[in-house]
Amino acid sequence: METESLVETLEAAGLSPYQAEAYVALLELGTASATDVADASGVPAPRIYDVLRTLEELDYIETYEAESLRARAHSPSVVLDDLRNRAERLESAAEEVEQRWEQPELEAGGASIVTRFRTVIERAEAFITDANHQILLSTTTGNLRRLAPSLRDAVDRGVSVRVSVHTDEDEAPPDLDLFEGTCIEARHRPLAAPFVALADRRQASFAHHPDSYDRYGVLVNDRTHTYVFYWYFLTTLWEPWETVYDATGEGLPIEYFDVRHLVRDLRAIGWEDAPITLRVEGYDTKTGEESTVVGTVVDVRVPFASESDTGYELAGQVTVDLDVDGEHVSVGGWGAIVEDIEGTRLTIVDAPPLD
Fold first, then answer.
1. Residue 7's domain is classified under what CATH number?
2. SS3 (DSSP) at 319
3. pTM metric for this prediction
4. DSSP 237-288
5. What values do phi and psi take at 183, rounded to 5?
6. Does residue 170 share a domain with residue 126?
7. Range of the domain at 116
8. Cα 1 to Cα 7, 41, 107, 141, distances in angstroms
9. pLDDT, tens only, 2-55
10. Strand, helix or coil at 130?
């Protein structure tokens, strides 16, 4: 580093211009009289004594009398420690500025646009950590590995976690060991896709694929906006792709995160021919409070009459009616209004074998 640059750096670290110039000059001179330091540094002679005393107070130099005031630089360890401490504080300040700018506090009903993917995945990690019921995730294998500890903790808490892993066309399929303990079901999309993390139907973290022209992220803490990301996840990142990992195994219970998936299997089983017991976890649509009921399926109402191979339709109202200890309870999906319960986790706990 040239002398001029060193002086400027010391000024940025907190020294005055005269202090920085005098200290650099003294480093080159070793030991010198105040007059020689003034001549070498360009500090005005009337000011050099105050400058040297200030540097001595900072432990940068020491002065002594030998016919005239003389000065010598201290061992640089003190200066180096001071500069490194200043550098650490500056680095911390830079990180704090970045965090406060990139990660505005998300209030209820809020949404933010961010420019760094790191912010998106850090918020996703926080959403996963705080989730109580459900996590839906679209990610690469690399980012899944990063989020795996938080996902395992969520699974251990009883959170329903489903993951859609996307890979490039020339990339190998994900190793199934990657899903062990991190989710209850995983699907593989052999096509690049955005990063999407949804938690408890109210928080969303979204970022375009890194190769996309549009490079920004969206953070949401709002049920209505998260609902849009949910439908994108369901129709584009989940439903069309093959299941590659299923921790539930064969037999009962069978868990669903969407009422339409449940209806598909109810029609395949033939719910009218044998009693099917369903446990529903969700929210009371009148009070908004969490609700869990267990009852027998007595009706399935769908807006389509066709008995297609999939029995799966995206549009329209889908309702499952239950008999809960003699009381009628209707169950709808995300955004249910007219039903009694908005189901977030629907589990068949007793039914005839599914062919």
1. 1.10.10.10
2. strand
3. 0.66
4. IITTSEEEEESS-SSS-EEESSHHHHHHHHHHHTTTTS--EEEEEEEETTT-
5. -160, 170
6. yes
7. 110-246
8. 10, 17, 48, 43
9. 777 778 878 877 788 898 888 888 888 888 889 898 988 889 988 988 999 888
10. helix
